Amino acid sequence: MESIIGNSTDAAAHATPCRRIAHLDMDAFFASVELLSYPELRGQPVVVGGAKTIPPPDVTPAAHAFARLKNYNGRGVVTTSTYEARALGVFSGMGLMHSARLAPDAILLPARFDAYRDASSRFKAAVTSIAPVIEDRGIDEIYIDLTNIPEATLPLVGRIKTAVFDATGLTCSVGIAPNKLLAKICSDMDKPNGITVLAAADIPARIWPLATSKINGIGAKTAERLQRLGIVSIGDLAHTSEDFLIRRFGPHTGLWLHNAANGIDERPVVTWRAPKSVSRETTFERDLHVRHDRAELSRQFAALCERLAQDLARKGYASRSIGVKLRFADFRLLTREITWPCPIAQAADIRRAAGQCLKRIPFDTAAQQRIRLLGVRCGALMDGNRPDNTPDAGTLTLQKPCMTTPRQVELPF
Ligand code: TTP
Ligand code: MG
Ligand code: MG
Question: Global pTM?
Answer without folding.
Answer: 0.72
